[in-house]
Amino acid sequence: MRNNSLLDVLLPKTRQGILAATLVRPEKAWYVSELARRMGVPSSSLQRELEDLTGAGVLKSHRQGRMVYYQANTGSPVFPELRGLLLKTAGLVDVLADALKPMAARLRLAFVYGSIAIGQEQSDSDIDLMVVGKISPAELALPLRHSRELLGREINPTVYTSAEFDKKRAAKDHFLTQVLAKPRLLVLGSGDDLGKAAGQ
């Protein structure tokens, strides 16, 4: 039996990407090619979705010169609920990345693993977050508390120094091997580093 994530059942992928970008950061106005770059899709694939979402009042648009910008319509009656849903699902990585940004220079890698990364989360699933770098769990407590409030989910961080992470990976540590063998959502660091971490 196929396990779809909650959002995949409710919304097509392209619409999820647009809503995750616009509703998680309602203050930002996006132009089409910027959204397309963020989502890794051609601009032409977004046009119809953007028109539909604007027509329904979920997004608003304005023209500046030759550019059309799209932004969350915070005045929409469904904005609070829709934003809440996106924060808990597709917008999750953005929320975590914002929380970790102030300490990004000390971090090598951060990614979500477990049921949410695999797309098999339940409404009460925790967020399993692995953080690799020069940081202590205590330093993560405050930024992650804010993320937890926004996302409405508990966050379980597992923290390793770079040396610990490399040593455990080289020793084929059971827990780390299991984590790296399954899908992960990159929060900070490069995809290359995550691929190397998994031995790909």
In short:
This protein has 200 residues and is α+β, with helices and mostly antiparallel strands. The protein is built from eleven helices and seven strands. The protein is 48% helix and 19% strand.
How would you explain this protein's 3D organization?
With 200 residues, the protein is an alpha+beta fold. It folds into 2 domains: 6-88, Winged helix-like DNA-binding domain superfamily/Winged helix DNA-binding domain (Arc Repressor Mutant, subunit A, Orthogonal Bundle); 92-197, Beta Polymerase, domain 2. It contains 11 helices and 7 strands. The mean pLDDT is 87.
Task: Report helical residue fraction.
Answer: 40-55%
Radius of gyration: 18 Å
Number of β-strand runs:
7
CATH superfamily of the largest domain: Beta Polymerase, domain 2
- The assigned CATH architecture of the largest domain is 2-Layer Sandwich
CATH class designation of the largest domain: Alpha Beta
Provide mean pLDDT, rounded: 87
- Overall number of structural domains: 2
Please work out how many helical segments DSSP would assign: 11
Spatial sequence of strands, sheet with the most strands: 6-5-4-7
- N-to-C terminal Cα separation, in Å? 28 Å
| Overall geometric form | elongated
Instruction: Output the structural class.
Output: alpha+beta
Main pleated-sheet profile: 4 strands, mixed
Proportion of strand residues: 15-25%
- Report the CATH topology name of the largest domain: Beta Polymerase, domain 2
**What are the secondary-structure elements, in order, as H or E?**
HHEHHEEHHEHEHEHHEH
